[in-house]
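Saturday, quiet lab. Running sequence design on the C-alpha cells for the scaffold JK sent over.
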C-alpha cells in the first residue's frame, strides 16, 4: 500500500499523481460502474476550501472512463440543506452538461436499507440505490478541519453516502465509530484528496478559513491517506479518534507505509486546529469525563451501543453573525435548539454536542466553546 503526494498547479495534475501509483487502471476494471464521491457538503465554492473542486472531479471521471469503467458522481449535502441549491452554489449545477458525467443527488434517489455486518454502532443504514449499483468507490474529499472530528478527510467523507436525516442518526449513535462502520461497509478503492485549497480553524468544515496548499494526495488505503493528510496539517493522526479507531479495527495503518513524491515534512503547514478535547493537553480531564459517563451507562458500554458520552464543551453563539435563519434548529437531531426572538436558544440538558447545528449554520455563528 502506497500514498503519493505531489505539488499541483491545478486539477489537471491528478493524472501525474495517479501515474506515481501506476494509473487509474490499477483501481478500476473495464466495464465497471464506479461511484466518484466528492465532498459537496454546503453551498460554497471550492475556492473557500469547503467542497471538492469540480474540475478535479471531472478529471478523475475522465481517467475512470479512459480505464474502461463508467463513472457516476454521487453526493448528498449536510442535513437539512437542499441538494439542488448546494450543487448550484458549489459549482456543480451544470456538472453533467459541462463535463458529460452524471451527478446523482443521493438524497433524492430511491433509498435502500442495508445491514452493517461489521458495525459497532450502526446496525443498518439507509443509502441511495445508485451507490449500491456501483462496483467500486473513488473517494475525493477535501483537506479540512472539523469542529467535532478534528479533521474531515477520506474516512469522514463517506458519511455523505447516508441519506438525509440518517446522517444525524450517525451523530447520535456515535460519530467516530459510525464513520469507521461506514468504511467497513463501503471500502474506497482509491482516495484522491483535494488539497489544492484546504480549510483550517475551529469553524471547519463549512465556515473555516481557506488555506492554499497546492497539493494533491492519493492512495488505495483510506487510513494511510488520512494519516498522511494529518501530517500535512501538522497533526499526529493518532490524536484523531476516528482515524485511531479505524486503525484499531484493522482498516489500515497510520505509519509504516511508503510515501511517493513529496516528503510531507517538507510541504506541510501547521493548521489552526479546532479546540477539541482530544487535543487538549489536559487529557486526563477528558478520560475522567468519559469514565464517568460510561460508569453511568454500564449496559450501553458493554453492548457498545446507545448514545455516546457527552463530551466537554458547549455550543457558543456569536450573536452578531446570526441572522435568525433557524437552519440550526432544523439541523439539530434531538430538538435542543429553539428559536426565541430570531436567535437560537440551546437546551444544554438535551444537547449531545454533535455540532450538527454549527456545521449547518450558513454564517459561522455557532462554535465549539469551552464550558
Ligand atoms: S445560529 Fe446560524 S443557523 Fe442558527 S439562526 Fe443564527 S445564522 Fe441561522
Ligand atoms: S444543539 Fe447540541 S444536539 Fe443540537 S445540533 Fe447543536 S450540538 Fe447537536
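Result came back. Writing it out in full:
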Amino acid at each position: 500500500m502506497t500514498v503519493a503526494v505531489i505539488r499541483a498547479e491545478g486539477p489537471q495534475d491528478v493524472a501525474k499523481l495517479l501515474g506515481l501509483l501506476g494509473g487509474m487502471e490499477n483501481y478500476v476494471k473495464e466495464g465497471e460502474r464506479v461511484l466518484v464521491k466528492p465532498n459537496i457538503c454546503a453551498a460554497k465554492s471550492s475556492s473557500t476550501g469547503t467542497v471538492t473542486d469540480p474540475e478535479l472531479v471531472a478529471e478523475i471521471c475522465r481517467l475512470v472512463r479512459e480505464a474502461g469503467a463508467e463513472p457516476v458522481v454521487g453526493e448528498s449535502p449536510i442535513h437539512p440543506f437542499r441538494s439542488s441549491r448546494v450543487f448550484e452554489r458549489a459549482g456543480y449545477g451544470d456538472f453533467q452538461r459541462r463535463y458529460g458525467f452524471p451527478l446523482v443527488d443521493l438524497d433524492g434517489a430511491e433509498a435502500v436499507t442495508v445491514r452493517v455486518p461489521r458495525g459497532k454502532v450502526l446496525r443498518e443504514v439507509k443509502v441511495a440505490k445508485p451507490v449500491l449499483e456501483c462496483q467500486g468507490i473513488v473517494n475525493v474529499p477535501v483537506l479540512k478541519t472539523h469542529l467535532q472530528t478534528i479533521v474531515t478527510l477520506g474516512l469522514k467523507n463517506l458519511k455523505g453516502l447516508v441519506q438525509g436525516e440518517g446522517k444525524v442518526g450517525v451523530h447520535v449513535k456515535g460519530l467516530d465509530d459510525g464513520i469507521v462502520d461506514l468504511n467497513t461497509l463501503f471500502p474506497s478503492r482509491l482516495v484522491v484528496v483535494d488539497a489544492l485549497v484546504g480549510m483550517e480553524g475551529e469553524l471547519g468544515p463549512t465556515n473555516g478559513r481557506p488555506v492554499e496548499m497546492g497539493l494533491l494526495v492519493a492512495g488505495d488505503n483510506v487510513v494511510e491517506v488520512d494519516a498522511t493528510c494529518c501530517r500535512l496539517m501538522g497533526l499526529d493522526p493518532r490524536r484523531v479518534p476516528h482515524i485511531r479507531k479505524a486503525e484499531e479495527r484493522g482498516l489500515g495503518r497510520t505509519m509504516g507505509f511508503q510515501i511517493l513524491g513529496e516528503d510531507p515534512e517538507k510541504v506541510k503547514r501547521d493548521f489552526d486546529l479546532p479546540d477539541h478535547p482530544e487535543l487538549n493537553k489536559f487529557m486526563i480531564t477528558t478520560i475522567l469525563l468519559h469514565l464517568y459517563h460510561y460508569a453511568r451507562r454500564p449496559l450501553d458500554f458493554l453492548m457498545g451501543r446507545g448514545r455516546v458520552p457527552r463530551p466537554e464543551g458547549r455550543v457558543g453563539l456569536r450573536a452578531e453573525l446570526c441572522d435568525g435563519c433557524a437552519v440550526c434548529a432544523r439541523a439539530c437531531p434531538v430538538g435542543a435548539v429553539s428559536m426565541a426572538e430570531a436567535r437560537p436558544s440551546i437546551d444544554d440538558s438535551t444537547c449531545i454536542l454533535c455540532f450538527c447545528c454549527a456545521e449547518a449554520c450558513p454564517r459561522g455563528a455557532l462554535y465549539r466553546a469551552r464550558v
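Notes for JK: The chain has two domains: 2-267, 277-369. Confidence is low (pLDDT under 50) at residues 304-308. Ask whether to fix the surface positions before the next round.
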